[in-house]
Amino acid sequence: MADKARLIVGTEAYDLPLVVGTENERAVDIAQLRAESGLITLDEGYGNTGSCQSKITFIDGERGILRYRGYPIEQLAEHSTFLETAYLIIFGELPNEQQFREFRELISEHMFIHEAMRHHFEGFPPNAPPMAILSAMINTLGCFEPQITRPQDNEDFTAAAARLISKVRTIAAASYKKAIGDPIIYPRFDLSYTGNFLHMMFCRPNKLCEPDPAIERALDQIFILHADHEQNCSTSTVRMVASSQANLYASVAAGVCALWGPLHGGANVAVINMLEAIRQSGESVESFVTKVKDKRAHSRLMGFGHRVYKNYDPRAKFLKASTDAVLNKLGIHDPLLDIAVQLESVALRDPYFIERKLYPNVDFYSGIIMRAAGIPLDMFTVLFAIGRMPGWIANWREVHTDPNGRIYRPRQIYTGPTTRDYVPMSERR
To answer: Which of the four pLDDT bands, split at 50, 70 and 90, describes residue 1?
Structure first.
């Protein structure tokens, strides 16, 4: 049968429905498998498991395709802005002039944080990781604005989304100022979304500064390229928490914690550390690549390959050109970029990497741009979180508006001890 998949277990056969997406992706629906057969499926790491149906992002890893709501990422990165892309991801359509003006005005209206929240920053030690501060302060934000943690209608949700997208950059910049001992800087009404973030990051009360347009645009593009990426670790975490009917702020704060992990949001930091290690060692790129191919050397090539993309990461392709343009325009010579270019060239000519389809991913170049912008290493993942906020919000909304939604509750295969009797402590050896 064309619309069924048949699972044969011993002498028993089970017909399972097929689900087909709008891009002709196909999945076997196992929702009734346990009820009918007593069996569950095991897919450690969820690499082959669809946890939901979503209208937000489409990825074809084999062909190197990424689209937000149907729009190719290349077009959005070239022609759109982060705020316009955020609107698209959250609400499903590109805004018209009036819709965008109203959304932008909401962003501007809510870019300040409650003055009492400023005191919360004082409770963190000077060396507190900015991601820890970001997660905690997003949860705190929900305490100051409880009326919008559970938006009841479209108007409430729009206000909540605008507040969160606007204030996250204010919190992020404040966390950096706290770390270096500088006073927190207020946002300005005359700057763009990304320009305001740079202003709050690098200006001081006694030192006015204007964001460099080239850096402002490059960071805006990084935000666009990170705005959503289907069911990655942090987005799945947001949906998992949201499925319990947790509020928007709590769900997003959980996403920040998931993103904090070095295998997820910290990957671009690992790239910079790798390039810096090569530079300091004086080792040739060719020698480093040789060690990477030797498992006994325990050397890792960071920024190459991707869990989903089995072809060139389309975000990396765009960022490579953006990186070259930014550094050339600013006249910045970064020895790490030279190493990165050599590394890419050597790796992509080597059959070892070609056969394994290990192409540069988005993390390979995003770190170079952020480094050129003066963003410190421990803030890299924070910028990732700012960019990913629209995707988290959109996924939270999908969960909360799903009429058939239920709390996420994966199964497991138990591998511990079988039944055993309690032994009093005096008799234990």
So the answer is: very low
Query: Do 49 and 96 fall into the same domain?
Result: no
> Residues 363, 378, 402, 421: which is the catalytic one?
363
110, 306, 313, 400: the active-site residue: 306
Burial of 330-351, coded b for 16+ CB within 10 Å and e otherwise, reads: eeeeeebbebbebbbebbeebe
Q: Decide if 333 is catalytic.
A: no
Reduced DSSP (H G I as helix, E B as strand, rest coil) percent helix, strand, coil of the chain, to 5: 55, 5, 35
Inside any domain, residue 410: no
114 a catalytic residue: no
Domain end among 65, 86, 113? 65
**How many domains is the chain built from?**
3
Question: What domain range is 279 assigned to?
Answer: 267-372
- Rounded to two decimals, the pTM is 0.93
pLDDT tens-digit series, residues 326-355: 888 888 777 887 898 889 888 888 999 888
